[in-house]
Give the backbone structure.
Amino acid sequence: MAKPPAPPRPTVDLPAHDARVRLTRKRRKVVFRKLRALDPKPLAEAAAEEHAAVFARVRCGDCARCCQTISPIFTDRDIPKVARAVGLRPAEFTERYLRLDEDHDYVLKGSPCPFLGDDKSCMIYDDRPKACREYPHTDSPRQRQLLDLTERNVEVCPAAYEVVERVARRLLGLGFEEGEGGAGRG
Ligand code: SF4
Ligand code: SF4
């Protein structure tokens, strides 16, 4: 009998991501400060291209870190749609699953997301909130305004980390690792 094909190699290594997040904390601050000084248009264009390149390779099904650790915002449009998908009225859904955060946005009461399956798939994929569809937002034309959020997201999302590092290398000639370019002097 022929040997069964090996399962595809995971496209995400979360322990390695966590290690690099710890090691590059200071350096990332410098890189993000320099990114904030760039023109918004070339920044957004470079980010959109690098986002497409990274997500052509990364399978979110190998990861699900965002769904396990942070909550999307549920807008007034999301709530009826998601409520219908899980067979609840909007008020019941809100009462059961959501709370208001400090910015008065509805977010999940806890993590991981209750709609994350054991196989790391989203049980409400076609009806998931807009914030889930757009996460980690690295292809947004509003990239410049989103840099504070992106700076937090690179700690969660290995793909966002990679997108921003590729953008920084491309536009600034700098990576996140010590010794790459001159970020330490920034
Ligand atoms: S709704 Fe789906 S995509 Fe959004 S956090 Fe939950 S499991 Fe993840
Ligand atoms: S968006 Fe990022 S954190 Fe979320 S599953 Fe995909 S790679 Fe992982």
Summary: The first strand starts at residue 73 and ends at 74.
